[in-house]
Structures
1.
Amino acid sequence: MKRINSETKARLKKVSAKTVYILAVGILYYLFASITEIGIPCIIKKITGKFCPGCGISRMFMALFKGDLRAAANYNLLVITLLLPSLFFVSRNIIIYIKTGSRNFDIPEQIFVVIVFIMIIAFWIMRNTERFSWLAP
């Protein structure tokens, strides 16, 4: 059996601590929003009256936690569509970081990031047009 060196252990501990922190904040936000029905307001929506690409994400996750995939997709179709591929790439990158200490993206990850960026811009434009108003949360 291969022994884990101290640098790998330190990276694993760092990633684990950040993961626990992110999950704790997410759970606390979920509980707060569920009880108070107060969510994070969108500054872009307040200023421009237009939906940003992230509008509806809080409600999307709330619906996901309740098991309502249809409602989650209605709140933010782009994020729900990209959730699994993004989790795959993030998990893969975390594993590589823990094992090697490298934070570099390889070519498939770079291509994925560019494609996601293009999709975000297109989604932002589309959800604010009358023809694609069904993409609004």
2.
Amino acid sequence: MTDNGLMRLGDLVAQALEGALKALARSDLILADRVVRDDLEVNRLRYQLEEELVGGLSAAGGEEIRSLVGALYVLPELERMGDHAEGIAKVALMLGPHPTLPLPGAVVEMGKRTLSIVNRTLTALNKGDANLARALCLEDDDIDALYDRAYQELISTMVADPRHIAEATYMLWVTHNLERIADRATNVCERVVYLVTGRVEELNVSKY
């Protein structure tokens, strides 16, 4: 029940991020509003599962306890990832239906890469694939590099044309949310390794 609930929560988060990115790219305010409203279900499910896990600890032992504790650590990471996706959708709403500043290529690429990391993190979690989890942690530096590139592009845009300062600032919020989602995904990957091996390994160590 808990495992299925955990994957359900992960699926909701991935859907929220995908929807938020589509809303941002298409200036789709209806989709953006739906992502924001659907975050209530992410929050509700997180706390429901947390209650189930805590209740299960009293009757569990050995490996089952490790599984429950690992899942307890994963829950808040997934819920916060959903919050960051909601943040992207809110930016789409603030930009409105006809933004004057197109999304920089680095932001678009960052979104695609982050969504891919989230989906593969959920696969690692679902299959208990420690090798995939370790490999995904190595991709966090790529997201950081894209974050820096997008940041520089947007700052340059502000300097070149002050009329774009507000929209460029909103897009900086998007890059921040994407960077945090990727970072939290690597935290989940560390927990996958713990669930499989029983050892806590610090994998999210940036070399960037």
